Amino acid sequence: MSSRMVSGLSVAMGIAMISACGMSKEEHDGLLKQALDERAAACDAEMKKMQAASEEAMNAKDGMISGLEGEIEKLGGDLKKVRGELGDRVVQLAETKTELAASTTELSQLKKLREKAEQEATQFRSLADRLKSMVDAGKLEVVMRKGRINLKLPDDILFPSGSQQLKKEGREALVSVAEVLKEVPGREFLIAGHTDNVPVKRGGRFKSNWDLSTARAVEVVKLMISHGVEPEGLAAAGYGEFDPIAPNDSKEERQKNRRLEIILMPKIEHVALEG
């Protein structure tokens, strides 16, 4: 039983006892009203206390909800940030993989180029060693020009002036070269004729240095074939005076430009690698 009910019963019992003692009706009503007013005031006070407690609880609940909502919003922002960073990392990883693949391809190509260069160097040394006697005699030079192995023979031991007919000394030198080249299978050789810038004589067989240099190259190709070099691996070209290795401003310099070159052409796969 609540304290308010106990208090009310006590008041009522007190009034009843007073009434039994001969109290007048007015006095009795006054006491009863006082008791009821006190009870109503106690109820109001209790209700206000409960309302205050309820409001406090509601405020605490609202504060908790607000805090949770803020935390959820913060976590949502953090999650969005993490997802963004993760997306960036995925993009960076993809770029790194692409760069790594490109680097691997480049390294593979560099390795092949290195192997090619080593093969060329070995072949260069081998040719130089086998043609050493001609090199020592000044009848031949083995050089690298424009990235290619080049066997260079001076014009004065090969052809008479203005002619494509080989001299005996030039024929012997070329036969020696052919004996070496025919043992290098699977390679292509360009026989290139060159002149100085002195025009050919008028009325002669050749109308220009183009014609003369080309005819000389063809003559050398024929000799090479006759001494066992594969014709599929030979080509002839005449450059006239248009690919000089020295200025045409003196007799000595012009002599350098009058020459025949046997050029080892690069294989197709090597050209593809360099490209």
Can you walk through the features of this model?
By secondary structure, the chain is an alpha+beta fold. It has two domains: 3-68; 131-274, 60s Ribosomal Protein L30, Chain: A (2-Layer Sandwich). 64% of the residues lie in helices and 11% in strands. The chain contains seven helices and five strands; from the N terminus they run αααββαβαβαβα. It has helices at 3-20, 25-130, 132-136, 168-181, 209-226, 251-257, 268-274, and strands spanning 141-145, 148-154, 188-194, 234-238, 259-265. The chain has a five-stranded mixed sheet with strand order 1-2-5-3-4. Helix 4 (168-181) crosses helix 5 (209-226). The protein is rod-shaped, with a radius of gyration of 57 Å. The model is unreliable at 268-274 (pLDDT under 50).
The major pleated sheet works out as: 5 strands, mixed
* Low-pLDDT segments: 268-274
Note the total helix count: 7
Q: Order of strands in the sheet with the most strands?
A: 1-2-5-3-4
CATH superfamily of the largest domain: OmpA-like domain
The domain count comes to: 2
- Give the CA-CA distance, first to last residue: 105 Å
CATH fold title of the largest domain? 60s Ribosomal Protein L30, Chain: A
Q: What would you report as the Rg, rounded to the nearest angstrom? A: 57 Å
Helix content: 55-70%
CATH class of the largest domain: Alpha Beta
What portion of the residues fall into strands of 2 or more residues?
5-15%
The string of secondary-structure elements, in order, is: HHHEEHEHEHEH
